[in-house]
Design brief:
mainly alpha, about 290 residues, 2 strands, disordered N terminus
Length: about 290
């Protein structure tokens, strides 16, 4: 099953006929998401071929551990690339906040930056290999958009961006905690249900946007700043948490399967898009609960 971010389609760690997909280790009972087995085995031979316990581990839903080899992705690689990508977003946001005053011109620049970031993300999503320059450029334009958006919200709801950052950190930390504790298992059924809900959500939001544009949904329709908008916002944040679990699983399996080091950029790319999604939704939610104060 192909993985998809709530905002942009993106590539995962597995590759099948030139297309990326969401790949996990086989689960208990033989269920798996995406390509079964090690997608990198052909690059350097199957490291589990001589391991008499590999099949036993697979049957119990435990990803087989790849022997250490030069050039393989590590958690340090993922952390470092993610810090660089998210750091670029933050720098872009701070500069936009400081240099672009709240005005119609700034709003236009923010929309332009968001469109450019979208195009760059789509280009990276369909590339066979990660492009660090492309990913960091995407992060810079995304940062400009977030900086203007955050300043706009802060002007009307003082402190909203700071609260949204704290909320994003809380959601991310809680999701990582429950994932590491094993309370959430990323199985084929889990992914199918979550993806179905996410696709339905995106389609409904697209229809709602069209209704708003044509004046058929006053006050934003489902994305209003009232109770209905709050419910939709909470659902959007839960979907963001769902995609974080897919990101965590991809990273875990990429390391276990000995993914090439450059795949860490894809991990950073996916995490950045998911966190941006959660932050934007958290920003709206904070504004809704803050009212007109």
């Amino acid at each position: 099953m192909r993985s998809s971010n709530p905002v942009f389609s993106r590539r995962g760690f597995s590759r099948d006929n030139g297309h990326a997909g969401f790949n996990t280790a086989p689960q208990a009972g033989g269920a798996a998401v995406g390509t079964q087995g090690n997608p990198y085995a052909q690059q350097g031979g199957n490291p589990y071929a001589t391991n008499p316990y590999a099949q036993q581990d697979v049957q119990h839903g435990v990803p087989p551990q790849a022997p250490a080899r030069t050039g393989a992705m590590t958690m340090d690689d993922v952390v470092m690339r993610s810090a660089m990508t998210l750091g670029t977003v933050v720098v872009g946001a701070v500069l936009a906040w400081a240099l672009l005053p709240v005005s119609p011109t700034s709003y236009g620049l923010a929309i332009g930056a968001a469109l450019i970031a979208f195009v760059l993300a789509m280009v990276q999503s369909f590339k066979r290999k990660a492009s660090p320059a492309l990913i960091l450029t995407y992060a810079a334009f995304e940062g400009v958009f977030l900086g203007v958006l955050s300043e706009m919200f802060n002007t009307q709801w003082s402190g909203a961006p700071f609260q949204a950052v704290l909320g994003t950190m809380a959601v991310s930390g809680a999701t990582l905690l429950v994932y590491k504790a094993g309370w959430i298992r990323v199985t084929a059924r889990y992914a199918r249900i979550g993806m179905t809900i996410a696709i339905a959500f995106i389609l409904v939001m697209a229809v709602n946007l069209l209704l708003v544009v044509f004046g058929l949904a006053p006050d934003g329709g489902l994305r209003s700043m009232g109770p209905l908008g709050a419910v939709v916002g909470i659902l959007a944040i839960l979907l963001g948490a769902f995609f974080l679990t897919l990101d965590f699983k991809q990273i875990q399996d990429g390391i276990a399967y000995g993914a090439p080091r450059e795949e860490a950029w894809l991990a950073a790319f996916g995490l950045t898009m998911t966190l941006v999604w959660i932050y934007v939704e958290m920003l709206r939610l904070v504004a809704i609960f803050s009212g007109d104060d």
